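Quick illustration, no need to memorize.
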Amino acid sequence: MMPALVDSAPEGPDWIHELKYDGYRTQLALNGGNRRAYTRRGHDWSHLYASVLAAAGDLDCQSALLDGEIIVQNAHGLSDFAALRAELARKKSRDLVFMAFDLLHLDGTDLRRQPVQERRQRLRDLLSANEPGRAVQFSDHVVGDGPEFFELAEQSGAEGIVSKKLGSRYRSGTSQSWLKTKAFAENEFVVIGAAKGDLAPVALLARETDDRRLEYAGAAMVTFAESERERFWRTMERLATDKSPLHMKQPSESSWVRPEIRLRVRHLRGEEMLRHATVKGISYLPPEKKPANRGAAKRYSSEPVHHVGPGAVPLPELLLSYYRRMGPWMLPFLADRPLNLFRCPRHDFGECLFQRNRMHPPRPESLFPPPIRDIPVLQKNGRTERYLYIDSVEGLLACLDADTIEFHAWGSRVEDIERPDRIAIDLDPDEGLDFEEVKRTAFEVRDHLGSIDLESFALLTGGKGIHVVVPFTPRGDWPEVRHFAEAFCTILAQAHPQRFTLETRKDRRHGRIFLDYLRNQRTSTAIMPYSARARPGAPVAAPVEWDELGGIETPQHFTVSDTPQLIKRARRLRHWGQADQSLPKLK
């Protein structure tokens, strides 16, 4: 039985009113030891709701069919749909609550023809009093005063209310005996395009997920005052693009824009896709960029300057020759990953910096021309920045024209930047520790990964340590992958606290190796195979096989002068860093 949507709650004493929950409509079918959970469309989700079904097994009945909603409650006791989706994504969901609001069958008796108040009284008797922490709860109600109850529900942040006519029987389909009154909410969304609407143009919108991805949310009618409307559409024209910001089919009579505008939108609360949505105002319009002055001072932002020692920056002709020859062998590791370029525009003064995206630090657009490409990425601060990537040797060499020495990259690729496909555990030794201890640690990390059926690969960083690289099929998101890396390193550090640490501050490492798992989070990067390093002697980050690592005496074993040897090794190690495996769950 489904409630019909109305604009206002019914008045009068012949209605009961309950909170409307933001979850998944579910029926629990109990028959002795056989307990199943079915969705509104009849799908069996018993495996997802195991904790709820286990709690339902304690009810004092032989058989029953309960109707209700599966939810997750926030700190205020309200249903939280985003938290529900996150909970269901876990291997074992434990925080689910079934809010029961109707009882259709009990111990062989069909109750559907009984009045709703009698069915609910039998349901209350079956469930007994609600207690905090119980997985099966009774959805309570009030009698009469519908508009007042709705006002309280709206003020509390609830999705709305459901009103049920006293004396109504249960039947399939939508009924005027059950009515739902939904509250409106106002939230911020990112504009990804525009389309023709029935009454007015509509903005195509995306919402930001907890893991900083954008997902399509629907459309909202654009009804600005004239002054704001002109600013909005002028900015839309400036941000127009042929490329979809999301992986989705383009709606008819629509156009795309880069995802930089943010709008405040009023919409029905608790819907996965926007309904009855209208734009209420502009939260952010990106300013029009002024042409950069190429003759301006060299420092463009607060990005820290890194001072490298004398001779740390290779001669430009040596670097160009190296990357021209090694470029084809680097590309399988480097292509289509968001980049963090270590650039030395003032190499004569030993001043270098990290170029984290196209405008951080700010640079003239012409500094990173095609074939260098970029992709819009939503930041934690709500701004969208364009991250650089390459897909050709020509793009790699174009980065050299922008004074790039080192190539660092994300652990994911641009086709799905929110799904990493590799982990790099950086073994960073404290001052005074020799390379033998780093190699010993690398072998131990390899063996521990092998014990959970993960193949790993060793990369000499060209700096002080070794990266243990774990490739895998991209399925989990950034929080999940970061959790794995952190949990794995925590287990090792706790098992050997005298040798390993997770302490980021160098003055607290005290002769131990820092197991750096922090490179495995969104926007963090790691040095890429065969990248040169801005260090004296021009060392190279080089892949090695495990059976040769023991005989290598320094992480700077290879340099840009070893190009012929590195090319020969690259041919032999062409399958380095490849493995058909999935990341397991770690508690």
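The chain has a mean pLDDT of 88.
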